[in-house]
């Protein structure tokens, strides 16, 4: 019995500590944050003239047992603006869920941002968001050498609710942008089980990204960006991206995170009101020995007058 209890503790440390840490990276990493910038920076709310509903699903590291699978739905809307040059208020929300082996994370949050004109064609947006996150671990989903070990299976699901604060700033025009944000700004320390001695944490995630758009012809435009991300005080990674757009309706891009992954993305503007994006990520880290690539599918529905549903900003 004592051996089973020790095994329970070891399994809990690995299956909870690692997925929670991985989730804090996965939730912001990869191509998904470029397909929906609301996931990484709340200040993007209110940039466009239209309202937009986005729904995305992610299947990561196919072939890897217990690989993360995630989904999210976000709503973004613009208010209090009389014209494109005026100050504007953006409001929105997000619902998300991710399953990673016996661990899962789910939650919902509210976002808001305020935009003001700067010099020339540049504007600035300041945004914030509040989430309520549920972290859950189900020990019955852990496979043991001894399935009859009651010391393990006698413990049901453990869960905790955690508040999270996000903040961001954005300086942008139709040709250039600079974005900075922090997720989980306050950070949290918690126990999944009040009687268990192990304390876990969600650390702040800092993100910085800059990019631009260059006209190549009357119909084609080239785009590029570079991003930096860190978890806590530790530098985590760099992200390079280049792409091409056709009439701001069809897009193709390649992103590269050295030592981590390479991502190819295709986007199709079915109409002024419907956009579909697909991304495939090839792992470059050691995980490629055990798993294949990751898939991301995003569907965007734009709501508003027809003349106001053209996307002016490309990120």
Explain what you see.
A 14-stranded antiparallel β-barrel has the order 1-2-3-4-5-6-7-10-11-12-13-14-15-16. The N terminus is likely disordered. Strand 12 and strand 13 form a beta hairpin. By secondary structure, it is mostly beta strands. The chain has a single domain, classed as monomeric porin ompg (Porin), CATH 2.40.160.40. It has three helices and 16 strands.
| Sheet having the most strands | 14 strands, antiparallel, barrel
How do the strands line up in the largest sheet?
1-2-3-4-5-6-7-10-11-12-13-14-15-16
Helix content: 10-25%
Helix/strand order: HHEEEEEHEEEEEEEEEEE
Q: Look at the structure and give the CATH class.
A: Mainly Beta
Structural class comes to mainly beta
Rounded mean pLDDT is: 78
Enumerate how many helices there are, as a single number.
3
Beta-strand residue percentage? over 45%
| Poorly predicted spans | 1-30
The N- to C-terminal Cα distance equals 55 Å
Under the CATH scheme, which architecture would be assigned? Beta Barrel
């Amino acid at each position: 019995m004592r051996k089973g209890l020790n095994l329970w503790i070891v399994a809990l440390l690995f299956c909870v500590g690692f997925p929670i840490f991985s989730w804090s990276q996965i939730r912001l990493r990869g191509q998904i944050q470029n397909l929906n910038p609301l996931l990484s920076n709340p200040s993007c709310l209110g940039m466009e003239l239209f309202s937009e509903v986005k729904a995305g699903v992610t299947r990561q590291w196919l072939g890897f047992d217990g690989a993360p699978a995630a989904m999210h739905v976000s709503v973004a809307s613009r208010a209090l603006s009389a014209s494109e040059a005026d100050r504007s208020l953006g409001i929105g929300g997000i619902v998300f869920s991710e399953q990673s082996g016996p661990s899962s994370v789910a939650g919902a949050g509210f976002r808001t941002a305020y935009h003001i004109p700067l010099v020339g064609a540049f504007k600035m947006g300041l945004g914030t968001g509040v989430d309520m996150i549920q972290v859950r671990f189900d020990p019955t989903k852990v496979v043991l050498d001894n399935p009859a070990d009651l010391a393990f299976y006698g413990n049901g699901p453990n869960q905790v609710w955690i508040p999270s604060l996000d903040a961001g700033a954005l300086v942008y025009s139709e040709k250039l942008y600079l974005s900075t944000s922090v997720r989980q700004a306050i950070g949290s320390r918690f126990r999944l089980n009040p009687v268990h001695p192990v304390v876990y944490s969600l650390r702040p995630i800092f993100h910085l990204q800059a990019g631009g758009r260059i006209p190549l012809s009357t119909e084609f435009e080239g785009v590029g960006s570079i991003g930096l991300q860190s978890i806590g005080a530790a530098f985590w990674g760099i992200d390079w991206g280049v792409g091409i757009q056709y009439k701001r309706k069809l897009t193709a891009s390649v992103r590269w995170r050295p030592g981590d992954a390479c991502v190819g993305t295709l986007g199709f503007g079915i109409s002024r009101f419907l956009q579909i994006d697909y991304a495939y990520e090839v792992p470059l880290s050691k995980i490629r020995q055990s798993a294949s690539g990751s898939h991301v599918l995003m569907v965007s529905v734009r709501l508003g007058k027809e003349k106001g549903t053209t996307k002016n900003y490309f990120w």
